[in-house]
Amino acid sequence: MLSIVIPFRNEDMLSFTVRRLQETLTVTHEVIVVDDASDQAVDIPPGVTPLRFDRPTGAQRARHAGIVQAKYDTVLVMDAHMNFWDEDWGPVLVDYSLSHPDHVGCFTMLPLTREKMRMEEAKGRYFGAHIVPFDVNDQPGLHSILRRRILVDKWNKTRQAGEVGSVLGGAYFFQRSWYLDVLKSPWEELMGWGFLEANISIPNFLLGGKNVCIELEIGHMFRNAPPYVSDLGRMLFNQLYLAEVVIPDDKERKALISLLELPDDAITRRAQGYLDRSIFRWYRRYLIENGKRSWQQYKEEWMDPERPY
Length: 309
Prior knowledge:
This protein has helices at residues 14-24, 59-69, 90-99, 144-147, 176-182, 198-206, 232-246, 250-258, 266-277, 280-290, 295-302, and strands spanning 2-8, 29-35, 49-52, 74-78, 82-84, 103-112, 129-136, 148-155, 162-163, 171-175, 210-221. The protein is α/β, with parallel strands linked by helices. Helix 1 links the parallel strand 1 and strand 2 (29-35). Helix 6 runs parallel beside helix 7 and helix 7 (232-246) runs parallel beside helix 10 (280-290). The radius of gyration is 19 Å and the shape is globular.
């Protein structure tokens, strides 16, 4: 039995994704769609449980709301623009998750586009992600805050499926009780759309779980212009939150955050205000007190700059 949670905002591919789920799954399942306060008409397909926020809060909180609502042990959260092979992949997923209750997993991802949504048309495969400590994005036109990112998840194109530093690829699965009771709901506090699957992957590793990419293939549509506006302050908050929560060494934490070169402007102050009002201090203590592996172990395994990705 499988609970599927799909957050969306102004998403015109939702019906396509739900239809393909219904065509390819035979296991007992429910589909929960969570509308992050869309301000455009969205076709809500039949056979789903709809939830709606009155104001936009972001993909991660929408995921969390659906997970709380879910009634089955195995939960799959996914984007609203996905495709699947026609073979019945549900039993493999559910059996794997039930047999590995401490795993947070993603799928071997096939990149698709709106013009090429058939699985056979995908070009390339991605196998989750590695974590690198710092990244500079030099694309022109991006806001200065988005040019620098910390604890970045990077696509893994070279390795095969197996244990990875971070899940990535638009569809993630785990046991509901593991997310709620052991990980303490890491997506509940995050904001906006964008950054970071590391926010569940790093706490999962520290608390004794494994992040994995399994060999089941799922198609994920890439696009240049999403149907929502990403709030820079909220995206920055997600980065600050991760660093504040998972890095116990004060000097190292401050040094890593300083790499963002945060400007002293309204966006930065707003992000810091979100952080000050959150419960991140309690969550950091929880991770440090209950962690089965250390931050140092994580760095040594998944933040080696010589490791190919």
